[in-house]
Amino acid sequence: MKNYEIIRRKNARQLLKKVALVACLGFTGFSLPFSHGQKVSRQKITSAQQVKTAHKTFTPVKVPEMELKNIREALTFTSSTSSKSLPKIQKAKETSRVIYPIEVTSPANNDVWEAGREYIIKWEYGGSGDVRIDLESASAGKPKAQYPIVSQAPNTGTYRFRVPYNWVIDPYGYVVNIQTLESKQSRSSQGTITVYTQPVDLECRIVDTKLKWQKTSYVFYVERKRWLEFNVLMRNKGVQSPVTIQNVLVRLIKQPEGVVVAQEEWGFSGIYHHDWYKLSEPIKFNISSIEAMVYPPFRDEDINFEAGNYRLEVELDPQNSLRENPECTYDNKDVHLWLIK
Q1: Which of 144, 160, 258, 318 is at a distance of 20 to 30 A from 268, taking alpha carbons?
Q2: Which three-class secondary structure state does DSSP give residue 9?
Q3: Are strands 112-114 and 194-196 parallel, antiparallel or unpaired?
Q4: Which residue has the higher pLDDT, 56 or 190?
Q5: Which domains does the chain have, with CATH numbers?
Q6: What is the CA radius of gyration of the chain?
Q7: Is the bond preceding 171 in cis, omega lying within 30 degrees of 0?
Q8: How many CA atoms lie within 13 A of 123 on its CB side?
Q9: CA distances (Å), origin 306, targets 12, 14, 30, 216, 255
Q10: How does strand 283-286 pair with strand 301-304?
Q11: Are strands 158-162 and 118-125 parallel, antiparallel or unpaired?
């Protein structure tokens, strides 16, 4: 009995050393030798304050053009070609009056507008009378919206327009529509354009190591691969550049028990324009070491950390220190599940 007590105390001391070591190192690329399928007793943790938070600072790297093909599914905008058919030219009635068609020549497909800059809208029209110019949404699956550019302008074939700040929320999928006030002829620009008007509009995506994003759960097999690996894509769809994100909240939660097994706060600097950025190296997380990461180690509930699934949450600027428009924060956070087989 005494020998058993000595062994039990020795094992307890070794476990405490592992807990302290993991608490200092965080979960990135670190593992401990726990046996497969080991169960430990832990109290369900429901508040982030009960998990020791690791603070880290990263300098993200721009995603090279050759890798962008792997993250097309992570982009929120639809195809650059409008799925909406262009308005048909109104047919002339049986009269001697001639109806001239309108042809919008600028902007062109895939053009980009930014707040604070001037752009020249161009069209061709052989008739007379003033015209009305509007920006219209043309993305499939989204309600049509119209943003006035000018209610009445002379039919000179050109109009200089300065894009206002905070004009539109979603920057993707717009056309410029020109309509004559006299004959009600109208025509839209070919394809779609992108219009950036918000100062800050963050977007976040959790991807695998190949920079692929998918809606379904990632699956990994614990017997062959215990490493949960991922990368994080981020960008600013606003016009402010560069942007520094001082706080990125990362939480790993064991499901279905709801145990927060790891929490980190990251900082990012040097995000320019509207480009995608990523971590220079993927984050590696060994589920064999999870038992020691739960902090503090309470004894209340039996949990198998190598069964079920893990929920990863990454949220950019949760305190909104960059003063992003609340209507734009819907894609600041991404959530993904890893299903253990």
Answers
A1: 258
A2: helix
A3: parallel
A4: 190
A5: 24-76+199-340 (2.60.40.10), 102-196 (2.60.40.10)
A6: 28
A7: no
A8: 30
A9: 21, 21, 16, 20, 11
A10: unpaired
A11: antiparallel
Task: Give dist(CA 275, CA 77) in Å, integer.
Answer: 14
Contacts of 216 (CB under 8 A, 6+ apart): none
Mean per-residue pLDDT, 80-104: 49
Task: Round to whole Å and give the CA distance between 55 and 52.
Answer: 10
45-59, 198-212, 302-316: range with lowest mean pLDDT: 45-59
User: How does pLDDT run across 224-279, given as a tens digit for each residue?
Assistant: 667 788 899 999 999 999 999 999 999 999 888 888 888 889 998 889 989 999 99
Model confidence at 81: pLDDT above 50: no
Segment 132-135 long-range contacts (CB within 8 Å, at least 24 positions apart): 132/178, 132/179, 132/180, 132/181, 133/159, 133/161, 133/176, 133/177, 133/178, 133/179, 134/176, 134/177, 134/179, 135/168, 135/174, 135/175, 135/176, 135/177, 135/195
* 54, amino acid identity: A
Cα-Cα end-to-end distance for the chain: 40
The more confident residue out of 272 and 48 is 272
Q: Residue 20: pLDDT above 60?
A: no
Chain centroid, CA 243 distance in Å: 15
For the stretch 130-158, pLDDT in tens is 999 999 998 777 778 999 999 999 999 99
Separation of alpha carbons 127 and 53, rounded Å:
68
Listed residue (150, 146, 128, 149) closest to 137, CA to CA: 146
